[in-house]
């Protein structure tokens, strides 16, 4: 997946997302049921890769949404709101805050990270987790993740950026 931004008018940015994949685009529970990866109120273990792709595609529909503390809609959302809303589309319940989300799933090593995992940070010199993102791509030692930035809203960032490299806390696997 690659994300490119082009300036179209002063103050406006057009974000284009390109995904190269042969699998069907799945952005909701109903589409997952139709495709067969969602059965009996759970996703089959063998299809967690498809589920990860579905979560990423759903999350990407929020690109450009402005930041709003406590927000959970396209009019504005914060980092944990973005993650909670995205996972809720697939009936996966997560706590509302990034701090509480950090206790969900299974913590894994950074080297084991996969698309669809949650990545957590301790930003602004905080001693506790206060930021979360959804891993959308891994290229060598770089992890790209979808999150809601207070300054730019929903966007994709990288662990190669000094701010996130220095504030990295942990990665949790929510999907089996």
TrEMBL record:
Record InterPro entries: NLP_P60_dom, Papain-like_cys_pep_sf, Peptidase_C40
Similarity annotation: Belongs to the peptidase C40 family.
Top-level taxon: Bacteria
Keywords: Hydrolase, Protease, Thiol protease
Domain NlpC/P60: 49-175
Keyword Isomerase on entry: no
Protein name listed in UniProt: C40 family peptidase
């Amino acid at each position: 997946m690659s994300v490119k931004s082009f300036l179209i008018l002063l103050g406006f940015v057009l974000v284009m997302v390109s995904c190269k994949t042969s699998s069907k685009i799945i952005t909701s529970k109903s589409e997952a049921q139709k495709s067969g990866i969602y059965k009996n109120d759970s996703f089959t273990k063998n299809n967690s890769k498809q589920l990860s792709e579905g979560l990423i595609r759903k999350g990407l529909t929020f690109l450009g949404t402005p930041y709003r503390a406590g927000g959970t809609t396209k009019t504005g959302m914060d980092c944990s709101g973005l993650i909670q809303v995205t996972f809720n589309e697939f009936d996966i319940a997560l706590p509302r805050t990034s701090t509480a989300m950090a206790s969900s799933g299974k913590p894994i090593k950074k080297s084991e990270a996969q698309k669809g995992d949650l990545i957590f940070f301790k930003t602004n010199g905080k001693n506790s987790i206060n930021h979360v993102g959804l891993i959308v791509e891994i290229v060598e030692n770089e992890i790209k993740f979808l999150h809601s930035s207070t300054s730019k809203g929903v966007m994709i960032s990288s662990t190669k950026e000094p701010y996130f490299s220095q504030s990295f806390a942990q990665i949790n696997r929510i999907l089996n």
